[in-house]
Amino acid sequence: MPFWRKDKKNSSKDEDSNGSIVDSKPKEKINYKARLEHRQYLAQESPEPVYNISECGLKNVPPGVYSKCKVLRKDALLLQNNELTLLTGGGTISDMACVLQVLNLQSNLLEKLPDEIGSLKELKVLYLHHNKLKKLPESLGQLKKLQSLNVSHNALKELPNSMGTMHHLNTLDVRSNAKLIKLPKNLCQARAIHVLEMDVTNFQYPPSNICEQGTEAIMKYLCKECDIEYISPSDYHPPNVENGKNSNGGCLNGFHEDPYEQIVKSNLKVMEKNKEDKIKEMLAMEKAREESQQKEAVLAANVQIGKKKLLTDLAAEESKREEAVKKMQQLRDKEKVALVGSLASVENNTDALISQLMASNARHSDPQRVLEELEREKKEMEDQLTIKAGEAGKLRAQEVKKEMQRLMEEEMRREQVRRQYEDGKQAVINNALTVDMENDKALDLVLSSKGKHQDDLISNLLEDEKYQREAFTALFLKQDSRHKEISSQVEQIQKELASLTMVEMTKKDLKMEFERDVMEEKRQTLSKMLMQLMDQKADRAKELQDRLKELDNTRSEDMENYWLIQYQKLLDSKPKKMVEAEAKIEPALKDLLTNANAEEYVPVLALRNITVKQLSYMKDHDLAEFGIHNSYIRQKILVMAGEYVEKQGHLAEKMSGLEDTEGGAPSAPPIGAEPSAPSKGALEEEVNGGDPEGGAKPSAPLAEPMVVDTFKSTECVICLENKCNIIFLPCGHVCCCGKCQSEVTACPLCRKTIQQKIKLA
């Protein structure tokens, strides 16, 4: 069911005040729903503190109205001129307790008020007139700030006794309540009442004669009945009122003005202001209209002036045009006269032509005359053709002669130019041939001289190469066997000295004194032999160095170090991978291949990372697969590899036997032992005078001998950290490392003076 009223359709009759039915025009239909929505929208959007939904045909308060008043901070709620029977539906009345000051419920169908009306603590104006109220709730007395109460035109029988507590109530209207015949006694406690409107004739208490005297008499009567002193409203100061003002605004004689009236006045002021603004706008519009009219008048005057000027210009142009037309007419008249004259002359010529044609026609009408005329014309034509043909032949002959003469002259000029060109060409050819012959002769001389010089250089180079080869061959053949023997003996002596030193140190640690003299004698013998071999090696190196110096001095400047440079180029031309592989090859394997005259197969085994031990396990066909096609070399390599591995095994067993038995001493190698083949590095070192890089200029022999990898020695007796790798001569002890030997002058074991130091690998 909607909460707004719907008008009855086809309502054509109304009742008058006496209840009689009178005819009237049908009322216009009102859309209360649209009006309600419009007023709710205005109430929510307007900054005014008024929530006005009056005259909307409401039967119930719309939902959420009370909470909206609280949220929007509306001071006044206007619900008058509706059909409300209850105040439910809008929410909880207590939601407006802190904001609502004006509540207008007039002209509705209310029969009672809810007790929650007393929760509106800030309410100051309450309009309940023109309803059907029969009783007011006692909670009405809780409205301590209520200033104006209108309950007229209702059906009240009595007023609540709690109204005496309304200390701010100054206006009370109880008119048109037929059953209300007395006022409550404690109403005298509401001392602020200065306007009390009531029906004098209906009341029994106070008596009607008192009621006729006015509000002051009524209040005095009630005070007397309650035995309290009467205080005039002008002298009474309600609670929370000081110096004629309260916290909510101004007052009048200690009593607050009607806030609803203030709201109405403020609205009227706003309307007046809006009206004045509209009047100002209308005046401004009128002024603007007058200005626009003035501008239009000026514009019309300008248009009129322009129009007159345009008409004047048009009249002037029209007069000019008429004058031009007159002149044109005169010209046309003159042309017409001339044309008539020309037509007359043409007619005369036409008449003459016609007469000639008629005469000619008359002549041609006779056939004999026509034939004669034709014959005569034919003869004349033949004569003319004969004359013209003869003249044309003569002219053609003359032109042919002239053309032939011109061609002959042109041909003669061409022949002359050709002869000149041929003569010049022959001269140029002769000069070019002469120059070419001279150049060829000079070139032959230069080439012959260069060829001779080149032949001489080549012959010299071949001779130098031959001499160098012979010298190197003789030198290598002479020195090779002795050098191998010395190197082998030095290597064996170093090994034996190292072994003796280790055994001697072991026995010394075990405090074994026997055979000490024998070992010392052997060590001294080996030391002397080592020193002799070192001296012999130095002498050989010096001799080789002297011979190389002699060869270097005899060689020419252009062929200096020729073969050594070529050899170095061959070494440098090896692939990087092959050079790295050869650098990583096992030295023992390299020496083995050198002794087997298979040095060319070093890169083959180096690329495959073959060791001596792996080589000893291989077969003949394995080496053949590697590319070693000579069966003799294959057998020799396998035999030497097996001997090397077996020799290493015997040496290891011998060393372990010496350590276990603690007796016996290694003896020096026999003098007649077959020396081992020197390595390629040793050979190059000896050829180059101790310089392994193969430099052209020989250098002095090194003070230290070739480093030989002998054995894993014990720790240094000085630092006890590094391995022993230095041989002291002449005692032959190996008991010191390379770092500590620089500060040692006497052997740490035998305390003999050190004459020479040899470094082991």
Automatic annotation (TrEMBL):
Regions annotated as coiled coil: 268-334, 364-427, 516-561
GO MF assignments: zinc ion binding
Domain RING-type: 716-751
Gene3D superfamilies listed in its UniProt record: Ribonuclease Inhibitor, Transcription Factor, Ets-1, Zinc/RING finger domain, C3HC4 (zinc finger)
UniProt cross-references to SMART domains, sorted A to Z: LRR_BAC, LRR_TYP
Annotated segments matching region Disordered: 1-26, 657-701
InterPro entries: Leu-rich_rpt (IPR001611), Leu-rich_rpt_typical-subtyp (IPR003591), LRR_dom_sf (IPR032675), LRR_domain-containing (IPR050216), LRR_R13L4/SHOC2-like (IPR055414), SAM/pointed_sf (IPR013761), Znf_RING (IPR001841), Znf_RING/FYVE/PHD (IPR013083)
Keyword Lipid metabolism among UniProt keywords: no
Mitochondrion in keyword set: no
The entry's keywords: Coiled coil, Leucine-rich repeat, Metal-binding, Repeat, Zinc, Zinc-finger
One GO cellular component, as annotated: cytoplasm
Protein name per the record: RING-type domain-containing protein
